[in-house]
Amino acid sequence: MEGNVAFNHWMYRHHFIFKERHGKNVTVQCNLCLPRINLLSTASDSTSNLKKHLQIFPEVRPLVWKYFEICAQDTGSHSALEVQSYMSEAPIAGSKQPTAQNKSPFPVLTEAAGTMLCSTGGAQTWMSRLCQEQALPEMCKLKDLLSQNKLNWSIQIYVCITQSKMNSLIFKFVVEDVQSFSVLEQPAFRKVIETLSGGKRVMSRKTFVARFEAAYDRMKDDLKAKLDTVQSVCTTADLWSSHNRSYFGMTCHWLEDNLERRSVALACTQIRGRHTYETVAVKIQEIHASYNIEYKVRATGTDNGSNFVKAFKEFSSGKDCEVVESHFEDLGSILCEEEMGGELSYFLPPHQRCAAHTLNLIASKDLVEAISKVPVGRLHNSAVAKCAALWNKAHHSTVAADAVLSIANMKLLVPCVTRWNSEYSAVQKVVSLTDSQLTYLKEYVDVLKPVATALDILQGEQKCYLGIVIPTLLTLKRKLQEKISNTQFFSEIIDTTVKAVDSRFKQLFDSVDAKLATMTVPQFRLWWLPESEREHLRAKLIDEVSQLYHHTATSDNTGETANEEEFFSYGPQRSGRDGQQEAVEEVQKYLDGTNKELTCLNEFPGVKKIFIKFNTTLLSSAPVERLFSHGGNILTAKRSSLSDEHFEQVLLLRYNSNICTSAFKKSMNYT
Q1: Which of 269, 250, 207, 477 minimizes the C-alpha distance to 359?
Q2: Mean pLDDT across the stretch 324-339?
Q3: Domain boundary residue among 160, 177, 206?
Q4: Which spans in 76-201 are helix H?
Q5: Which of 166, 324, 351, 436 has its CA at 20 to 30 Å from residue 101's CA atom?
Q6: Element (H, E) at 428
Q7: By its UniProt entry, which SUPFAM superfamilies does this protein fall under (predicted)?
Q8: Dihedral pair phi/psi, residue 474, rounded to 5°
Q9: Mean pLDDT taken over the chain
């Protein structure tokens, strides 16, 4: 259709279908006259004939539109409502029903009543309900016309999407699915949206980018304001490489007063060059400073990568947990030190190594080494080799995979005519396992089940407090040791595994902070500690609560009021409880309790604040590892067209939408 035709820009063009143009005239088909085909002609530079056509049916059409004008005024809604009518002069009794092709796929909707009906030929009943909702002369007249069967129609009504609503849906689509902004310029996408929306326009890429960047700025401001109100936070950091790009990701976590954990993403920025320990230190300090949380971070959790380990060893303000593992000198870091002169200094928070990653090292490294040093090592290797052959066959052959599935579900196998040998090979690997190999594998599964369970616990996020680590590890050691007397192959392996737990988690077992974190979890209190250590830790908790009360009293009694209190004296104090005594009573009452629910901490405000202080720290870096897979695959080839800056902004907007809801809603409703 030529762009200079007046019909092309007419606001009511959606009621018609353009057919053709003859010289100075255009021919269109009226949708409101269906199922009767009604072709209309109008001048190419005018729509007056079509306007006159919309004014026909004076007895009915104005009444319907009058009703919806009333609805819009009553509800305050300005959404346009389109009425598509099938009318004829024949009575309903002898009329033909609209064909399936003429039926609208949209639901019937009355905004005033909030009811939704399916438009499947029940138009008369629906219109009767409309008339009952408004006791107006026009509605009564319409009701009379319906009751007298003078009208034959099937009215299908749907909410016509507004431009503002469509813009918000497109914004949500691009952000939540991490789409490339170029999708807004694709003709097919624009055609689909404009067709389904009744002619509304897809915003330009430039308009979207402006709105998107404003939304990101609002999100970051809201996030800063939220973090300003939080006393203690922890962060997690990690590095990824994908599509020849490297990214540094960081998440932040804290506990609300109701002990619910909150998580946000702080960064997912590209880094260039070598991933040296100084590069890591710069990024961590830079991100913390950008959100004004550098003095609130209790610890930063990472995996056991040598660059992270060295960064915190060199610049951390707290003691790090020494884990026994090999270290390799990074040539890039040496060159970087020479270029920078070694004069820069960074200040990082205490380092919290990922407990799940450390335990995984025990299972994948220490355990394998222990098995290789005992006679059962050969049996282990042969059994695992056959399992690996089966796994590889099932992975690379669909026929073998179907065979495994059928065996697992106890179904009869249906051999494949052309690929039967693949199916046979897969089954052969199963039956070729000897009795001793099967016995070994069964014992392997039974003995190492506590390790798998502990890993699942440590990889959690919502309830994975620092105070859970020590009890989890102690329970793991106890369960492993209990199995020694009932094992045929694993007695020496269990001893080595337990020693590896003690070695790799030594600093954690000795950490006072970790013990206080555990002590303030009602599920554990002091029950996990030997009797000889309980009194010392009880005194430490009393001291923490006492300092908390003293700090609170000092904060509440400052300035002019404090000077007056110091001046006036009424003689020796006869009674009164200081912070120390109050702390002793609260801690003792807490330790004597038996309620294991976290909600019981509401009865002990001092202990609750200490719980928040020490259990804010996450014991796993899993949250930052989930950053790239937040709700789906993000680092894929089709997203690589996003610029690094926009990629980070999209990801952070998407990840933080549940926390910074107001900023996200403003962006969705922005016109």
Answers
A1: 477
A2: 46
A3: 160
A4: 123-133, 137-147, 163-176, 187-196
A5: 166
A6: helix 420-431
A7: Ribonuclease H-like
A8: -65, -40
A9: 73
| DSSP conformation letters of 313-370 | HHHBSS------------HHHHHHHHHHTT-----B--EEE-HHHHHHHIIIIIHHHH
Asked whether residue 195 is domain-assigned, the answer is no
Is the model's pTM score more than 0.85? no
Provide the H-helix boundaries in 187-305.
187-196, 205-228, 277-290
Q: Following DSSP, what letter does each residue of 372-413 receive, concatenated?
A: HTSTTHHHHHHHHHHHHHHHHHHHH-HHHHHHHHHHHTTPPP
**Judgement on whether residues 449 and 369 belong to the same structural domain of the protein:** yes
Q: Are residues 347 and 275 in the same domain?
A: yes
Q: Which residue has the higher pLDDT, 620 or 262?
A: 262
Q: Report the C-alpha gap between 220 and 233 in whole angstroms.
A: 17
**For position 177, what pLDDT does the model report?**
80
Where a domain ends, among 160, 194, 222?
A: 160
Q: Judging by beta carbons within 10 Å of its beta carbon (0-12, 13-18, 19+), is residue 457 exposed, middle or buried?
A: buried
CA distances from 305 to 353, 354, 507 (A): 10, 10, 18
Same domain assignment for residues 363 and 294: no
Residue 168 lies in a domain: no
| Shared-domain flag, residues 367 and 497 | yes
462 to 261, 574, 618, 671: CA distances (angstroms): 6, 48, 9, 37
Helices first, then strands: H and E counts in the chain = 28, 12
Residue 319 predicted with pLDDT over 90? no
CA 555, CA 217: separation in Å to the nearest integer? 34
489 within a domain of the structure (yes/no)? yes
User: Does 345 lie in the same domain as 279?
Assistant: yes
pLDDT category at 636 given cuts 50, 70, 90 is low
Predicted confidence (pLDDT) at residue 104 exceeds the cutoff of 50: no
Q: Are 229 and 341 in the same domain?
A: yes
Tell me: do 271 and 392 sit in the same domain.
no
CB of 89 within 8 A of CB of 95?
A: no
What pLDDT, in 10s, does the model give residues 488-519? 888 888 998 999 999 999 988 998 999 999 99
Strand-pair partners of 17 = 29
The radius of gyration computed from the CA coordinates of the chain, to the nearest angstrom, equals 36
Q: Which domain covers residue 652, as residue numbers? A: 214-354+621-669
Top pLDDT among 461 and 180 is at 180
Pull the structure tokens for residue 436. 């001793």
Question: Structurally, how many domains does the chain consist of?
Answer: 5
Q: Are residues 489 and 414 in the same domain?
A: yes
Q: Helix %, strand %, coil % for the chain, to 5?
A: 55, 10, 35
Q: What percent of the chain has pLDDT over 90?
A: 16
